[in-house]
Design a protein that fits this description.
The protein is mainly β and 209 residues long. The chain has one domain. The protein is 8% helix and 49% strand. The strands form 2 sheets. Strands 1, 2, 3, 4, 5, 6, 7, 8, 9, 10, 13, 14, 15 and 16 form a 14-stranded mixed sheet that branches. It has a two-stranded antiparallel ribbon with strand order 11-12. A hairpin with a 2-residue loop joins strand 15 and strand 16. The protein starts with a strand and ends with a strand.
């Protein structure tokens, strides 16, 4: 197993209501799961291949709850990545070189019926996890904007977090509101739905910090 490690800021937008039932072992809000996930890698490696500063976006669709499978995935890899870096990222995202069930990518990989050919594009990601704000842009393919949840009466920002002691993606995630659109091979569109902001630190054996 090739040793790997990724530290990244993450913004996820899915079709569910705020809080995301998946985080509580509950069924999805509207019966199926759809999501856009963006990762701004601050530091990382796959063996001797450095991954610092690279970015990745994934679009996902399942006909029902994720655990029932039959999903589709499409990954967009930073065009700045060289051939070794592209291969390394795709290996990690496929769940390879990972203890079973220990990372979000390994878990998701077991639920995909189809993984589409990746694209290699310029990716713009600007995420402030603590402020619950973020933007993701991939020209012609993906657009996501995240912001704090607002109190419907006062308009004030509402802060809520999820702490998962035995999670496979993050230790603590900030909850927000997000709107996103994908016009690529998995077309998606969300408006004021679940937004997740997190610092992630993952490796072969799961969460590292």
């Amino acid at each position: 197993m090739t040793p790997w490690e990724i530290q990244a800021d993450e913004l996820v937008n899915c079709n569910c209501a705020y809080g995301c039932p998946c985080q509580f072992n509950a069924l999805p809000t509207y019966g199926n799961c759809e999501a856009i996930a963006a990762y701004d890698i601050k530091k990382g490696h796959f063996g001797d291949v450095k991954l610092d500063g690279l970015r990745v976006v994934g679009t996902f669709w399942w006909p029902g709850p994720i655990h029932e499978g039959e999903g589709k995935a499409h990954f967009i890899i930073d065009e700045r990545a060289d051939e070794d870096q592209r291969a390394a990222l795709l290996s990690i995202l496929s769940g390879d070189h990972t203890e079973p069930g220990k990372t979000i990518w390994n878990v998701f990989a077991a639920t995909f019926a189809e993984v589409l050919e990746p694209d290699f594009n310029a990716i713009a990601i600007d995420v402030d996890v603590e402020a619950r704000t973020g933007k993701v842009h991939v020209d012609g393919l993906v657009e996501v904007t995240g912001e704090p949840i607002k109190n419907p009466v006062t308009g004030e920002e509402h802060r809520a977090r999820i702490d998962l002691e035995d999670g496979f993606e993050y230790s603590v995630a900030e909850m927000g509101s997000a709107s996103g659109k994908s016009t690529g091979p998995i077309p998606l569109e969300f408006k004021d739905s679940y937004g997740q902001f997190a610092h992630i630190h993952l490796g072969n054996n799961g969460i590292m910090g």
